[in-house]
Write a structure and sequence with these properties.
The protein is α+β, with helices and mostly antiparallel strands and 259 residues long. It contains 8 helices and 8 strands; from the N terminus they run E-E-E-E-E-H-H-H-E-E-H-E-H-H-H-H. The strands form 2 sheets. Strands 1-2-3-5-4 form a 5-stranded mixed barrel. The chain has a 3-stranded antiparallel β-sheet with strand order 7-6-8. The N and C termini lie far apart (41 Å). Bound molecules: zinc ion.
């Protein structure tokens, strides 16, 4: 943290109580990236920082010039995202988005594309009855913003078109693997590869989630079988690229929201 006071748009990703009246927060600042910071006295009833430092709030925060942990001195809520606190499912989905961002972001490295993605995902979540497609959209685009843009148009090994009745989700190969390449790789590794299988229709859905305009995505009709396949594929991609923290975030989500 440098020694100048600074003000920026922030998302409150995570938080926990600290001392008697403070909270330690992990915030995602548009210009400065992920930061740990202290909201002093915020658990007092009359604290002026209460709304702007609530979990999932989208706020303009000012940080004091200080060494070490940043301290929030002023806050103005742009959107407290009240809709996210309506029920346990929404709270769990919003917490999942916060945990994934926390897992994916290094400290104090600006990631404006991810910031915009995070704000739009949380804002949309407020108004959706069924968050399944939004969560999968968020996961695939999060990976793309981090430099892991998956390809759902062809087998990542031989380049055959993905217009096949069945393929496998394979993060190592950048998205998909056709059955022949899966058999070849299994033989080379000396054991059957444990990969989720996906139908051609599911591949097109994954491609849409990654590349289409959001309004078009929500017009899609998705069968329960496709939901299961998309869910298993996205879980495998996240685990491969983000490791244990992403698996942990999914386990927490599953306590309140199952596909
Ligand atoms: Zn292939």
């Amino acid at each position: 943290m440098d020694l100048r006071a600074r003000t920026d748009e922030c998302l409150i990703l995570r938080g926990r109580d600290y001392n008697e009246t403070d909270r330690l927060l992990i915030v995602f600042s548009r210009s400065f990236g992920k930061m740990s910071c202290l909201a002093k006295g915020v658990r007092r009833n009359n604290s002026r920082l209460k709304a702007s430092t609530q979990l999932f709030s989208y706020s303009k925060l000012t940080f004091a010039a200080s060494k070490g942990l940043a301290v929030i001195t002023q806050g103005e809520a742009i959107d407290v995202q009240a809709g996210l606190r309506e029920d346990l499912t929404k709270i769990a989905c919003a917490a999942y988005i916060g945990e994934l961002l926390d897992a994916a972001l290094p400290e104090e490295k600006p990631q404006e594309g991810l910031f915009v993605l995070g704000v739009s995902a949380l804002t949309l979540l407020c108004s959706l009855d069924e968050p399944f497609l939004l969560l999968r959209y968020f996961e695939l685009r999060l990976l793309a913003e981090l430099g892991y843009r998956l390809n759902f148009g062809e087998c990542g090994y031989c380049g055959r078109s993905a217009m096949l009745p069945r393929l496998s989700a394979c993060a190592e190969r950048g998205g998909l693997l056709c059955d022949s390449c899966r058999s070849r790789m299994s033989a080379a590794y000396g054991q059957a590869l444990k990969l989720p299988t996906v139908s051609g229709g599911t591949c097109r859905l994954l491609d849409g989630l990654l590349n289409w305009d959001l309004r078009r995505i929500f017009t899609l009709k998705v069968t329960p079988a496709m939901q299961q396949e998309v869910d298993a594929a996205c879980a495998a991609y996240l685990a491969y690229f983000l490791g244990r923290p992403a698996e942990k975030a999914r386990e927490n989500l599953l306590l309140y929201y199952k596909v």
